[in-house]
Structure formats: structure tokens, C-alpha cells
Design a protein that fits this description.
191 residues; alpha+beta; globular
């Protein structure tokens, strides 16, 4: 089951990266340049060759791509302590961008970085193209995403807390680009 979830998350990430590069031609140079595998056509072809009866499917795909790419920037920020402000601005605005930056700055000031990566299962659960809003729900699993001290590499011992929990994010359409604007994690329950 875990490998199926990992494969699904990888395919979503890959499809999101390919879709974002296709949609945002101006940002093409910054998308997928780190791994040549992201140029593979099979996930993109699968997504586009499957007809959908959902008139909002194109919008949902763009929202999911923005969310997935924002998370990739977050993972990079947490690993290297750099804010990656320009890259983050392609996918997140408002409270979402501010909260992610604050988290990086707080960890940086304490000499903490993150290793590994979280697992995610994002789904666009609502989209209103007329109102220019969308909702993404995710089961965020930080079990394999570990905080460590930068200097020693020693894992940081955290107070007992839930590592797999639901996250609800809001997105807003600006022009023809969807931006994640708010991220709300609920650590009181699992998913």
C-alpha cells in the first residue's frame, strides 16, 4: 500500500510539474530543470488523453499543479534554509507564502534543516471558476521528513505529535494562474 501511495504521489508530482511547465511558458526555464525524468510524456499524455465529463477538470489540474509545486519548493526550502522567494511566488501568495517563509526562518535561526521528504495525497475537492477559488485537501505524512541539526546532522527530538494529518488549502485564481493562499493543518486527527 505504501509503495502504491508513493507511486501515486510521484505520478501526481510529475504530472503537476509537466502541466505547470506547459501552462506557464514564462516560467519554463525554472520548471523541471533539476531532473530530466520530468520531461517524460507518459504521465502528461495519460492525463490529457483521458476525456473527462467534468467541465472544471482543467482548472482542477492547474490547482493541483500549483499545490504540488508549492510543496516541492517548501521541501527544498526546509532542506537548504533558503527562502526561494521567486520560485515560491510562482505558486503561493498571502498567508500560505508568509507561513512557509516564517517556518524556514524559524528553523534557520535554530540551526535546523529537514532531511527526507513528506508523503502527500492532494486532491482538489472544490473549485469555483467564477468565484476564482478552490480547495485542496491533503493527507500530509511527515513520518519520513525529519528535522536535524545542520551542524551535527543529529535528529531533533520533538515532543510527541501526530506526523500524519489532514491539511486543507485554499487557492485563488489570479489572471490564468492559481495560487495557494492559505494552508490549514489539523494535527488533532489523523488521515
Amino acid at each position: 500500500m505504501a509503495s502504491n501511495t508513493h507511486h501515486r504521489t510521484h505520478v501526481l508530482r510529475l504530472a503537476g510539474a509537466v502541466l505547470t511547465c506547459t501552462v506557464a511558458a514564462g516560467a519554463l526555464a525554472g520548471c523541471g530543470s533539476d531532473t530530466p525524468k520530468k520531461t517524460a510524456s507518459s504521465p502528461s499524455a495519460t492525463a490529457s488523453s483521458t476525456p473527462s465529463n467534468d467541465p472544471d477538470q482543467a482548472a482542477k489540474d492547474k490547482v493541483l499543479a500549483s499545490y504540488t509545486n508549492m510543496r516541492e519548493v517548501q521541501i527544498k526550502m526546509a532542506a537548504d534554509g533558503d527562502l526561494h522567494t521567486e520560485e515560491l511566488a510562482k505558486y503561493a501568495r498571502g498567508d500560505a507564502a508568509t507561513d512557509l517563509k516564517k517556518s524556514v526562518l524559524r528553523n534557520e535561526s535554530m540551526g535546523i534543516k529537514f532531511t527526507g521528504r513528506p508523503e502527500m495525497e492532494p486532491q482538489v475537492t472544490a473549485v469555483d471558476t467564477k468565484g476564482k477559488t478552490a480547495t485542496v485537501t491533503d493527507c500530509f505524512d511527515a513520518t519520513s521528513w525529519k528535522p536535524v541539526y545542520k551542524d551535527s546532522g543529529k535528529e531533533l527530538k520533538l515532543a510527541e505529535q501526530r506526523l500524519k494529518y489532514p491539511v486543507t488549502s485554499q487557492a485563488t485564481l489570479e489572471g490564468d494562474t492559481w495560487f495557494v493562499t492559505k494552508i490549514t493543518a489539523d494535527r488533532t486527527k489523523g488521515c
